[in-house]
Every structure is written in C-alpha cells, then in structure tokens.
Amino acid sequence: MRILNLYAGIGGNRKLWGNDHTITAVEINPLIAEIYHDYFPNDNIVIADAHEYLINHFNKYDFIWSSPPCPTHSITRYMQEKKVYPDMGLYQEVILLRQWFEGRYVVENVIPYYQPLIPPDQVMHRHSFWCNFRIIPREYPKMQTCKKRKEREFLQSELGFNLDKYSGVDKRLLLRNCVLPELGRDILGDALAGHKRNCAEQATLFGEGS
Q1: Taking Cα atoms as reference points, which of 205, 191, 187 lies closest to residue 61?
Q2: If DSSP states are collapsed to H, E and C, what string results for the chain?
Q3: Residue 49: what pLDDT?
Q4: What is the pTM assigned to this prediction?
Q5: Domains of the chain (ranges plus CATH)?
Q6: How many CB atoms lie within 10 A of CB 183?
Q7: What angle separates helix 141-148 from helix 152-159, to the nearest 10 degrees?
Q8: How many CB atoms within 10 Å of residue 143?
Q9: Beta partners for 22?
Q10: Shortest CA distance to 173 belongs to which of 181, 161, 165, 185?
Q11: Among 115, 11, 25, CA closest to 63
Q12: Model confidence over 80-125: pLDDT tens digits?
C-alpha cells in the first residue's frame, strides 16, 4: 500500500506500521525530519509544507494520514488571553479528501473547544478523527497514563523514542504531540480491513471468482 503520512513529526502514529508499505512522510522542520529518518530510514521523507503537498499529490496514494497542527483548535488556546483564528486548514483537508480522494484517509486532531464545523466521524480519548472507514473504538490505558505523566523521560519510555542525542528541538513537545503508536497501528489496521471488505464486495458484485 502507498501511504502518505502528513505532518509526520517524529512518527508516533507510524511507529508500528512495519515495513510492508511504501511510506512517504512530509515534515516541514529539517531537524524533526532527521529524527524521523533515524527511526524510519526506509521511508521517503519530504521536507515541505504538508498542506500544500497534499493538494498536489493526494491522488498518488492509497492511504493518507494527516495530523494538522492542533493548537488553534485546542481548549488550552481558548483559555489563553490572546485570541487567534482557528486554522481552517484542518477543514480544507477534510473537504478535499471527502470529495476527491479515492483511497482511505484519516485526518486526526484534538477535540476542539468549539462545535466542529464538520462533525468528526469518530471521537476517541482526546482525538477527533475524520475518515472514510470505520475506526473501531478501543481503550488505551497507556494513553491515559501518558496524559497524566508528561515528563520527557517517561514519555520516551512509553512511546519508544529516545531523543537524548538530538538538539535544537523541543523534545518534550515532540513527544507530547506524538500519536500513541498502538492507536496508529490499529487505525491503519481498520483502514486495511475496510479496503479488503470493499474489494471483496466489488468482486462479488461483478461476479469475479465465481
């Protein structure tokens, strides 16, 4: 499967995807992209604006994972004195993928402080998901523990990323922004299961294999 991993960060969502897929990761920060490369050397890493990359290349992939920046949608931003516009890039990507992408996709973000302009297809823990396949609700005790314990050393241990040798980046923020690897693995599994069901239904409809 050809996978596009947007706003890749250090690869929390990608960590348990294995090496059976052709994966392109897009990350705008070269220092963060270097960390991603160290953990996933077989992936094709593109240093670029993920939002622009998506609209120019979305039709080249079978599965797209997008995690646009979440601070302007978060309840923590709402509580701050300085007000900012929510970044509408989130909804631009949802609309683009819903209308024109023929593969499987998931757009992941926080549960926003406002009524979502486009209701998410699934809400789980502190995540909202817009997608075109069924994400099975699951419990992740580790996620709750990580949320309570935000120390960098603890997050490194729980998430499986050791950032001690790197400099020039906010390591604690990178780790806190990681999607739990088990969650990323399970959502890809749900997308693959949905793809297989769709192929089987099409084969039955057109009489293949009969």
Answers
A1: 191
A2: CEEEEECCCCCCCCCCCCCCCEEEEECCCHHHHHHHHHHCCCCEEECCCHHHHHHHHHHHCCEEEECCCCHHHCHHHHCCCCCCCCCCHHHHHHHHHHHHCCCEEEEEEECCCCCCCCCCCEEECCEEEEECCCCCCCCCHHHHHHHHCCCHHHHHHHHCCCCCCCCCCCHHHHHHCCCCHHHHHHHHHHHHHHHHHHHHHHHHHCCCCC
A3: 98
A4: 0.90
A5: 2-205 (3.40.50)
A6: 23
A7: 160
A8: 18
A9: 2
A10: 161
A11: 25
A12: 888 899 999 999 999 999 999 999 999 999 999 999 999 999 999 8
- Counting as low any pLDDT under 50, the low residues of the chain are 200, 202-203, 205-206, 210
Q: Return the structure tokens found at 172.
A: 């604690």
- Evaluate whether 134 touches 126 at the Cβ level (below 8 Å): no
Structure tokens at 41: 């050397």
